[in-house]
Specification:
- The protein has about 375 residues and is α/β, with parallel strands linked by helices.
- The protein folds into two domains: about 90 residues, Arc Repressor Mutant, subunit A, CATH 1.10.10.10; about 240 residues, Vaccinia Virus protein VP39 (Rossmann fold, 3-Layer(aba) Sandwich).
- The protein contains 14 helices and nine strands.
- It has a seven-stranded mixed beta sheet, sandwiched between helices. Strands 1-2 form a two-stranded antiparallel ribbon.
- Strand 8 and strand 9 form a beta hairpin.
- Helix 3 packs across helix 4 and helix 7 packs parallel to helix 9.
- The longest helix has 29 residues.
Length: about 375
């Protein structure tokens, strides 16, 4: 057989190959930097650096009791990633902008370091890969206690800083009702950050948290004991276990509907459990109904990664699960879900949260 001469029609541009390869390896770099951020968060290094000015590895070793050589490698890596400033002999500095994102989990809505979890274990990754064959994803607790902790770290700062001062006052009459004494349910409450925040702010109200994750509920109960909260109660059940009679003046589902195997069933349960003049507050991912529309989001690839690793996995963890995934509830779908459950009033809210939209829903 004689090979035909190469006419050049299928030749690949080497510059294009190099650029594509750079893009691929840049994602690998992101994986490595993500691990380094997790280490810095886990060891409390960002907090030590916050407001400390220029710090050398030797100084940080003295402050933390950690090994200087390992700290030096971490500091240099953080500087290479552009997360720390390097001042030659003076050392490394976490500036105020970096501190707002990496250190200040109590006062900054931009805080993000808690979102960087430990790398997925080989066993965990095997379960995700297996889901491509079975269609059944690992449930939320398959990630172990670390999954509940990571979720708390990701969502806790927003809850503490925005829920009470910004979101609730925008909902008609809700703050006044909480002040006078209301009964509140948080469906998908996680480790209880939202309910414990509300319990501290509204002592006349009562709060019930529901979650299918035993690790999250264990953590919520522990946090309630630590804070001495007597107005909160946490139950290890899913949202379908809500009372079948009108009980709650306010129901919360914060960044969790798209994770559920049966969000329609939960919406119907909420409709039965809410009082005639009650309010359902939904927080869910800011997204559109198609890939083309969603491409405006510069973090879109990350959102799909979150979906495969947690959201789609959770929402397919039971046979015939809804399989919504992270981007499965654009506004029109949220409204249809609510109306199908029997709710008649639906008001979207945009609080300039880059990741989420909010919906005020009433019977």
């Amino acid at each position: 057989m004689i090979d035909e001469p190469d006419t050049g029609e299928h030749a690949v541009d080497p510059d294009a190959v190099a650029l594509f390869a750079f893009n691929v390896w840049n994602y690998k770099q992101g994986e490595m930097v993500s691990m380094m951020i997790h280490i810095g968060h886990r060891l409390g290094l960002y907090r030590h650096l916050e407001g400390a000015g220029s710090t050398t590895s030797a100084m940080l070793a003295t402050q933390t009791g950690l090994d200087e050589r390992w700290l030096r490698e971490w500091l240099e890596g953080q500087a290479a990633a552009g997360l720390l400033e390097h001042h030659a002999e003076a050392g490394f500095e976490l500036g105020p902008v970096g501190a707002a994102v990496l250190a200040d989990d109590q006062g900054s809505l931009a805080y993000a370091a808690g979102a960087f979890a430990a790398p997925t274990t080989a066993e965990g990754l095997d379960r995700i890969v297996e889901s491509f064959t079975t269609g059944i994803g690992p449930d939320w607790d398959a990630r172990g206690p670390a999954g509940a902790h990571q979720t708390e770290q990701m969502l806790g700062p927003w809850t503490r800083l925005a829920l009470v001062p910004t979101v609730l006052p925008a909902l008609d009459g809700v703050t006044a009702r909480l002040d006078s004494g209301a009964t509140v349910a948080d469906v998908g409450c996680g480790s209880g950050v939202a309910l414990l925040t509300l319990a501290d702010e509204f002592p006349r109200s009562r709060f019930h948290g529901f979650d299918s994750s035993r690790y999250a509920i264990d953590r919520a109960r522990a946090r309630a004991r630590e804070t001495g909260s007597e107005s909160t109660e946490f139950k290890h059940v899913d949202g379908a276990a809500l009372p079948s009679v009108p009980t709650y003046d306010l129901v919360l589902t914060l960044d969790c509907l798209h994770d559920m195997t049966d969000p329609a069933g939960v919406a119907s349960a909420i409709r039965r459990a809410i009082t005639p003049d009650g309010t359902w507050l939904i927080k869910d991912i800011r997204c559109a109904g198609s890939l083309e529309e969603n491409r405006a989001n510069p973090m879109l690839a990350m959102m799909y990664g979150f979906s495969i690793s947690s959201c789609l996995a959770s929402s397919t963890s039971a046979p015939d699960g809804a399989a919504l995934g992270t981007l499965g509830l654009p506004p029109a779908a949220v409204e249809q879900l609510c109306r199908d459950a029997g709710f008649t009033r639906f008001t979207p809210h945009d609080f300039d949260d880059p990741a989420n939209l909010y919906y005020e829903v009433r019977p």
